[in-house]
Write a structure and sequence with these properties.
single chain; alpha/beta; Rossmann fold; 2 domains; three-stranded antiparallel sheet; elongated; binds glutamic acid
Length: 295
């Protein structure tokens, strides 16, 4: 059986918060409990959203929680050539096309699940007088199903649900969907464990994997932790910042949200003890099969 490789891929747009600690811990335990490797990637492509110093603070927090990664950290910023080659390949194969539409023009179509479906203006070539702005991936009526280890089967028909989606933005930045697929493959990731807010991105990622001849890893989407008003706990709401004095209790709290039923004694234990218990008792089957869980 091929060895398991998991990963955590934070965006350095702010400090690690308790919501992202759940994803870090879940991906760590799922990889390590199977004797696998756990890699770290900094999703630092979206430079306007990168906060100076955030990457270092995230690394410090992971070390503090004793979530030690294997090998070198991959910074997406170093992968620009690979992204460029993949975009050229997709364009040459007719699976991607230059788009000259402004954001407003692109949003003039019918509603999809994440906003209007691209109306197809530049699918057959740039209209005369238009300059290329972004690059889009060409979708069709095929259904893509995610066999998610937590959330079960999740299906999209990309032409109806999403539309031709951007793989290089008008500001030149490579879109998350493409960078993630290329980097998961480059890092040899076999299990993607992350928040369920990314489940709806996964059919796009599988479509890109197929178009690029890449393997599809296993996916497990963990519930996103929300407050009683349904707001995601995290940097945007500022809720539940990480508390430096209680790393063990916070890890135990994350285990509880992940359905692992940690014993009461773990709330007073240190981080390494909680992680040891987590590794010995981890079961993905116990993770709540819901996209959201209330804190
Ligand atoms: N960088 C993304 C985030 O922090 C996660 C990407 C992924 O796990 O695929 O939301």
């Amino acid at each position: 059986m091929p060895s398991v490789v998991g990963r955590f891929a934070p965006s350095p747009s702010g400090a690690l918060h308790i919501g992202s600690l759940v994803a870090a811990l879940g991906s760590f335990l799922q990889a390590r409990a199977q004797g696998g490797r756990w890699l770290l990637r900094m999703d630092d492509l979206d430079t306007p959203r990168v906060e100076p110093g955030a990457a270092e603070r995230i690394l410090d927090a992971l070390v503090f929680f004793e979530l030690r990664w294997d090998g070198e950290i991959l910074y997406q910023d170093t992968r620009r050539d690979a992204y460029r080659l993949a975009i050229e390949h997709l364009k040459n194969a007719g699976q991607a096309f230059d788009c000259g539409c402004t954001r407003r023009e692109a949003r003039s179509g019918q509603g999809g699940i994440e906003g209007p479906i691209y109306p197809g203006t530049c699918r057959g070539g740039l209209p005369p007088g238009r300059q290329a702005r972004s690059v889009r991936f060409r979708v069709d009526g095929q259904c893509f199903t995610v066999a998610d280890s937590v959330q079960g089967g999740y299906e999209q028909r990309l032409d109806r649900d999403i539309g031709d989606f951007v793989i290089r933005r008008a500001d030149g930045i490579v879109a998350y969907q493409l960078a993630t697929v290329l980097d998961d493959d480059y890092q040899g990731v076999t299990e993607v464990v992350r928040g369920a807010d990314l489940l709806s991105s996964t059919p796009r990622q599988i479509a890109l994997q197929k178009a690029l001849g890449l393997d599809t890893p296993r996916y497990a989407h963990l519930p996103v932790i929300v407050d009683e008003a349904g707001e995601k706990l995290g940097k945007s709401t500022g809720a539940m910042p990480l508390r430096p004095e209680k790393p063990g209790a916070q890890l135990a709290q994350c285990l509880h949200w992940l359905g692992q039923c940690p014993p009461d004694s773990l709330w007073d234990a240190n981080a390494s003890h909680v992680l040891r218990w987590g590794l010995d008792n981890w079961s993905l089957d116990r993770v709540p099969k819901t996209p959201e869980a209330v804190a």
